[in-house]
Amino acid sequence: MRSFRKVFLCAFVCLWGLNAPVDGAVISDFNNFAESGNMLNSASHNREQNFATSGTTITITEASRSVGSAGQELWGSSEFASFTTEGYRLQVEFNLADIVRSQTNARVGLMTSSALPAGGPTSGDVRNSTDYLYWTIQGGSVRFGGFPNGGAEVESNLFGIGSSGTDVSGLYMARTATGWDLGYLDLAGNDVLAYEYVPGTTVGGKLATINPDGTFVGLYSDMRVSTDSYGLSNLSYGLVTAIPEPSSAFACCILGAFAITRRRRKLTKN
User: How far apart are CA 40 and CA 186, in angstroms?
Assistant: First the structure.
């Protein structure tokens, strides 16, 4: 009886471990992150942004404005493994009440890019100087978009999240063999796949050829109001390992536990 209890306990612990959440490492050191500067800088748009960090919390605010109503920036790092290997995942969490704002078209969320364009007060419009893909919250919806290198912007509102902001607690991008899985976290922290993006497909009535090489991963932001401030947390990135099916995992754990028990018995007899 005592041996059976040990076997059952071992199997339970193994099964719990196999079903525990497997996510990329949460980033707390942002020293190697850099911002593109405003990629819309021109005579009509000049809004710079600020990315302030405290532990695993990131606050995005408008740093300065000369003219215009909009400003877009990328904020990322090239210190991680390139976002081109299947199974890598980028994720961020937030308080949706702080994100959803019906009075503005501002958007914040995840991005991956081939480079960080050299934006700034005199740069002009440099959005199409590199490939970048973003997956963001905008007002009451989740938006996909980006630029192919030298091409035109592609963007589309993919689904609404409601004005109450009670159904989304984060966003994620996961690399697949052919593109990216784009999804969100519900209030319980469960993954909900929203869209499977494959370069060369039609999005919002346009052919989307956006295909960054994944050198940079991080955040995308688009400011529209001078007093905007957005709080995000637990930005994570890393390789997510597939978890075995519960039934097969449990069977493997049982067999392993019995094997361990049997070996111990043999050693005792000897």
Answer: 33
